Structure of 3-isopropylmalate dehydrogenase:
Amino acid sequence: MTYKITALPGDGIGPEILKGSIEILETLSKKFQFEYDLVTKDFGGIAIDKHGEPLPPDTLEACRNSDAILLGAVGGPKWTNPKNRPEHGLLGIRKALNLFANIRPTIVTESTAHLSPLKESIVKDTDFIIVRELTGGLYFGEPKYFNDDQAVDTLTYTTDEITRIAHIAFKLASKRNKVVTSVDKENVLSSSKLWRQTLEQVSKEYPDVTLNHLLVDACSMHLITNPKQFDVIVTENLFGDILSDEASVIPGSLGLSPSASFGENGPSLYEPIHGSAPDIAGQNKANPSGMLLSLAMCIRESLHQPECAQHLEDIVFNTIKNGIATKDLGGNNSTSEVFEAIKQSI
Ligand code: ATP
Ligand code: MG
C-alpha cells in the first residue's frame, strides 16, 4: 500500500521547516523501506496571493484524497484583509475534513528540561498527550446569540460525539502507558455527567487501559505541579483549548511541540503548534523540531511505521542533547545545520 501525503508549506517559516522535513522523510523511507506519494499544494497567504483564496479547490481536493496532510504554518503581517485571511484556510480544512480530535503531545527530555520556566525536577521526563474534542461543545452549540441585554452560548454534547473522541484517547493510551485521564466538570455540568458516563462505557472495550477522572480546575493545577503523572488526557473543546495552551509552556519553547488532528475516516493533519514566526522567516533560524515531531506522529499514525517514528523522535531529542540546536533552545545552529545533523543520524 502506497500512502498519499499532501504537503502544505504555507507562509513564514512554514516552507523552510517543511522542505527539510520532507527530505528527512525521504531518507527515512529508504532505511525503513516504505513508500509514499507526496504532492505539494498552495495554502494560506501564498494561496491568497496566487489564487485569491487561502484554500483553493485544487488544494482541498488533494487533501481529501490523501491519507495525511503535513502543514508548515500560515499567516503573517502581509495579509490584512479580515474577510480573506490565511487562517480561514485552516478553519476551512478542519471543517471540510471533519477533524474532530486535536492531539497535542508534551514531551520534556533530559536535554530540554532546563528550558522550561518550571523547575527541572518537576518537568523532566514529562510525556503526555492532550486529546481535545474540536468540533462540539460551547463553540458550536445552539442556541447561540448576542443581544445587548443577554448573550447565550450552549454547551451540548451527544453520546456519539463523546464516544468517538473517547476511542481516539483509549487507542492512543493502549499504544503508550495505558492510562486515560478524562477531564470534566461533573460536579456542576450536565454535559460533563454524560461525558463521564460515556467514558466509563467506552473504557469497557479497553480492559488493559486504566481510566481516571479529574475535574478541570484540579487538572489545571496538576498539569504544572506534577505533569509526569499523565499519559493521555481527554477533554471537551473549551477545557482542551485552555489546558493545551497551559501545557504548551511546559517544554519552554514553542518550536518543540507537534500536533495532529484526526477525523472519522478521512486524512489526518499534522502541524507544529507554533505559528508562521514572520520575525525570523527566511533567515534559516527556525527550530524544525515541532515540524519533525509532527512528521513522526504522521509516520506512526498515518503511515503505520511505529519503529521509524520512534527512531525520528529519538534522533530529534538526541541532536538537541548533543548541543546542535537553534537559538530558541539556547544553541547557535541554523535550521539547515539541524536538518543536516538529523539526516546524518538516520
Ligand atoms: P499564530 O497567531 O500564527 O499562532 P503567534 O503570534 O502565536 O502566531 P508564532 O508565529 O508562533 O506566533 O511566534 C511566536 C514567537 O515564537 C516568535 O517570536 C517566533 O519567532 C517564535 N517562534 C515560533 N516558532 C518558532 C520556531 N519553530 N523556531 C524558533 N522560534 C519560533
Ligand atoms: Mg499562536
User: Anything to note?
Assistant: Residues 14-32 form the longest helix (19 residues). The CA atoms of residues 43 and 135 lie 22 Å apart. The mean pLDDT is 96. Residues 275 surround magnesium ion (ligand 2) (CB under 6 Å).
